[in-house]
């Protein structure tokens, strides 16, 4: 039998087509799994008995589950998730005053090898299916948390798993399943231009976070290897075309004595020129293997103040969950 969670949405649709079932039957199945959290096909009472038997004979309903969970002294949670094939991913829970955000992973491992990211140092295994992506939200919900926001910023490059990520985005937005508004879901990327073009062609007002981390091409290539292909020039050209119809944030991990000097900031200011709707999100570097120095609050504040004075819309991400390796860039750093 086939693990149900191993199939993507397209494969599930094809299976229902082969059974001669109407498309709405798949939606009913997903309702039972994702909304009602039912694990037994025989309990899915609005499916006819023959279909329930076919499902029982064809699939194993083996959900991802928390192998371990950790909680930081600041309230941040990290879940170590085991998948149907014994692969491991991690997901983070970030509670705040007015929101509770889940950071989901989209791949097992990552191909892109960004220097500042723990998951980039782990061998890529496979893409997550749509159900595996959205189930990370359900895992935290079943622990009693009222989730308000989802960010696709965990293990992997979301747009390298384009079809499954877009299907997950649809389910997360759909009131029949999760019902998150478009302003409550953010998709992160190192800047895969062709996939970004497809995404913004099909969706408006989508929230996108681009991992910039340096506005100097040579420096960016050192910490984001794919930058050789997706250059700053190409990224800015795409932003100029799309920043009025999308919500775009430039993520900038502050690494002392690498991208925190005046030349670096002036290059960032120049990059942001003529992009008044684009925000720079400063993120303190969180050490992975004690390989680099972490910035202190004074440095982060001085950078934020300088950018603000020069007309850049800037925010600072508070580092959360560092004591359990759940902060930005630390997932799978255990």
How are the elements arranged and paired?
Layout: E1 2-3, H1 9-18, H2 24-35, H3 49-58, E2 59-60, E3 65-71, E4 77-82, E5 88-95, E6 100-103, E7 107-108, E8 126-127, H4 130-141, E9 149-152, H5 162-173, E10 185-189, H6 193-202, E11 207-211, H7 217-223, H8 232-242, E12 247-254, H9 262-272, E13 279-284, H10 297-309, E14 313-316
Parallel strand pairs: 1-2, 6-9, 9-10, 10-11, 11-12, 12-13, 13-14
Antiparallel strand pairs: 3-4, 4-5, 5-6, 7-8
What does this structure look like?
The chain has 334 residues and is of the alpha/beta class. 32% of the residues lie in helices and 19% in strands. The strands form three sheets. A ten-stranded mixed β-sheet has the order 3-4-5-6-9-10-11-12-13-14, covered by helices on one side. The chain has a two-stranded parallel sheet with strand order 1-2.
């Amino acid at each position: 039998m086939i693990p149900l969670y191993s199939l993507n949405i397209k494969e599930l649709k094809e299976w229902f087509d082969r059974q001669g079932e109407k498309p709405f039957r798949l939606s009913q199945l997903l309702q039972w799994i994702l909304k009602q959290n039912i694990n037994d096909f025989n309990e899915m009472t609005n499916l006819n008995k023959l279909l329930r038997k076919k499902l029982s004979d064809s699939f194993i309903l083996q959900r991802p589950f928390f192998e371990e969970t950790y909680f930081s002294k600041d309230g941040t949670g990290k879940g170590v998730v085991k998948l149907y094939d014994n692969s491991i991913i991690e997901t983070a829970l970030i509670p705040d005053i007015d929101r509770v955000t889940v950071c989901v992973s989209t791949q097992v491992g990552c191909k892109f090898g960004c220097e500042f990211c723990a998951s980039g140092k782990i061998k890529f295994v496979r893409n997550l299916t749509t159900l595996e992506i959205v189930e990370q939200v359900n895992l935290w919900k079943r622990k009693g948390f009222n989730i308000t926001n989802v960010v696709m910023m965990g293990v992997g490059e979301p747009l390298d798993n384009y079809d499954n990520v877009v299907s997950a985005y649809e389910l997360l937005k759909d009131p029949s399943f999760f019902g998150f508004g478009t302003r409550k879901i953010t998709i992160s990327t190192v800047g895969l231009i062709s996939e970004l073009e497809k995404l913004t062609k099909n969706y408006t007002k989508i929230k996108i976070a681009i991992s910039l981390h340096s506005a100097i091409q040579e420096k960016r290539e050192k910490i984001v290897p794919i930058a050789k292909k997706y250059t700053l020039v190409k990224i800015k050209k795409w932003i100029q075309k799309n920043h009025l119809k999308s919500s775009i944030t430039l993520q900038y991990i502050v690494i002392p004595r690498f991208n925190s000097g005046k030349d670096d900031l002036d290059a960032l200011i120049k990059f942001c020129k003529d992009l008044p709707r684009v925000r720079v999100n400063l993120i303190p570097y969180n050490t992975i293997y004690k390989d680099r120095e972490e910035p202190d609050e004074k440095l982060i504040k001085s950078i934020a103040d300088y950018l603000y004075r020069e007309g850049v819309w800037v925010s600072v991400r508070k580092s959360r969950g560092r004591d359990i390796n759940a902060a930005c860039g630390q997932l799978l750093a255990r």
